[in-house]
């Protein structure tokens, strides 16, 4: 099959790779049709990471079932599907209670099977394949992973109707977080450096936007909330920006407010000075959020699919660019230079 393999310099080489096989009776093989580029992918762009060299990566994808194992009953060949890429070892204490998003072997397992979006075929357990309604496109489905991350964070936050919410970052995750909060009846202000992303945020329903290049985000959030501070702040940037954005988030939160860490940290230790006395005396909660899994008896990815299918969130406008797999390096470059290109969610057709 055709696949994009990571190179030593962190870019991609599109070449021939071994097509996956169905290793067990409960597995499914699918033909990938659309894959996406997210912030996590971009943090690995053009970085020398020997552990990823010659590997297939990518974790936002939708496609068509081509083969199923003997015990598979939920999908059949020809079905259009979205593929969940959060997959633990299935045997640890956390997996046994459906908290597989924090499985110790999460990345070892998911990258061996379902988290291989930038290739023609992918195989995984049938429970990770969700049948798409006819009116939900492959492109829309490729955004379900993004919104599932956001939904998990919202569930952890306890967000309620009429809450005052601040979102730091207007990339795909930040926009998704804003849209879900709005769909739940909250008032939302969103902050970013990229004006085109903020313009889209307004179009998608944000009550207020802040360009942090010219405005003080903490002051703007305080003004938005009548001087009290936000009930919930979602940090959706992460990476190298976290030493700046996390302190901002804690200053935006009201007393007994919550700060949800959605943006990912880089590997290793990160030292971030915070105003700990104020955080403690105000009982501000810092809530880490990691991927997604289950909410009570419901699969969060299935919940997002249901929201899209019912028209409660419209994700189509977030797809700003499209590239074939052969141009994956160009696609990543456009996504990485979003300030110049206006890129939000870049889709790769395969």
Topology:
Layout: E1 2-6, E2 12-16, E3 27-37, H1 39-43, E4 61-68, E5 80-83, H2 93-96, H3 106-110, E6 121-125, E7 129-131, H4 138-141, H5 144-157, E8 164-168, H6 172-183, E9 187-192, H7 195-203, E10 208-211, H8 217-224, E11 230-235, H9 242-252, E12 253-261, H10 276-281, E13 285-288, E14 294-295, E15 298-299, H11 300-309, E16 319-324, H12 328-336, H13 338-341, E17 345-349
Parallel strand pairs: 8-9, 8-11, 9-10, 11-12, 12-13, 16-17
Antiparallel strand pairs: 1-2, 3-4, 3-6, 3-17, 4-5, 5-7, 14-15
Helix pairs in contact: 5-6, 5-11, 8-9
List keywords for this structure.
Rossmann fold, 13 helices, globular, 7-stranded mixed sheet, alpha/beta, 6-stranded parallel sheet, 350 residues, Quinone Oxidoreductase, Chain A, domain 1, ER
Structural summary, described in words:
- Belongs to the zinc-containing alcohol dehydrogenase family.
- Keywords: Metal-binding, Oxidoreductase, Zinc.
- Its cofactor is Zn(2+).
- Its EC number is 1.1.1.301.
- Pfam families: ADH_N (PF08240), ADH_zinc_N (PF00107).
- There is one protein chain.
- The chain is of the alpha/beta class and 350 residues long.
- It has 2 domains: 177 residues, Quinone Oxidoreductase, Chain A, domain 1 (Alpha-Beta Complex), CATH 3.90.180.10; 141 residues, NAD(P)-binding Rossmann-like Domain (Rossmann fold, 3-Layer(aba) Sandwich), CATH 3.40.50.720.
- The chain contains 13 helices and 17 strands.
- The strands form 4 sheets. Strands 3, 4, 5, 6, 7, 16 and 17 form a 7-stranded mixed sheet that branches.
- Helix 5 packs across helix 6 and helix 8 packs parallel to helix 9.
- The chain is globular.
- The N and C termini lie close together (11 Å).
- The model has no long low-confidence stretch (mean pLDDT 97).
């Amino acid at each position: 099959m055709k696949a994009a393999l990571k190179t030593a310099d962190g870019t991609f080489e599109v070449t021939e790779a071994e097509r996956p096989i169905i290793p067990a009776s409960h597995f499914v093989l699918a033909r990938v049709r659309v894959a996406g580029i997210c912030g996590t992918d971009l943090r690995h762009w053009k970085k020398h990471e020997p552990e990823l060299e010659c590997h297939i990566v990518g974790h936002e994808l939708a496609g068509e079932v081509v083969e199923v194992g003997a015990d598979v009953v939920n999908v059949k060949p020809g079905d259009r599907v979205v593929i969940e890429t959060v997959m633990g070892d299935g045997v640890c204490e956390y997996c046994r209670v459906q908290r597989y998003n924090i499985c110790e072997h999460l990345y070892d397992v998911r990258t061996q099977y379902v988290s291989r979006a930038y290739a023609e075929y992918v195989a995984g357990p049938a429970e990770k394949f969700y049948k798409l309604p006819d009116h939900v496109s492959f492109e829309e489905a490729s955004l379900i992973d993004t919104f599932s991350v956001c939904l998990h964070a919202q569930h952890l936050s306890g967000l309620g109707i009429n809450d005052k919410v601040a979102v730091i970052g207007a990339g795909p995750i930040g926009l998704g977080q804003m849209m879900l909060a709005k769909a739940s009846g909250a008032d939302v202000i969103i902050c970013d450096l990229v004006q085109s992303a903020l313009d889209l945020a307004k179009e998608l329903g944000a009550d207020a936007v802040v360009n942090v290049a010219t405005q003080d985000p903490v002051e703007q959030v305080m003004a938005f909330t009548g001087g009290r501070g936000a009930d919930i702040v979602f940090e959706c940037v992460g990476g190298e920006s976290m030493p700046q954005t996390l302190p901002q988030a804690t200053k935006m939160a009201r007393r007994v407010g919550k700060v949800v860490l959605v943006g990912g940290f880089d590997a290793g230790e990160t030292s971030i000075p915070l105003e700990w006395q104020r955080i403690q005396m105000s009982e501000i909660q810092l809530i880490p959020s990691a991927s997604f899994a289950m909410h009570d008896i419901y699969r969060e990815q299935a919940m997002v699919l249901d929201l899209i299918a019912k028209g409660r969130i419209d994700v189509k406008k977030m797809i700003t660019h499209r590239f074939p797999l052969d141009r994956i390096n160009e696609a990543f470059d456009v996504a990485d230079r979003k300030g110049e290109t206006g890129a939000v969610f870049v889709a790769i057709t395969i």
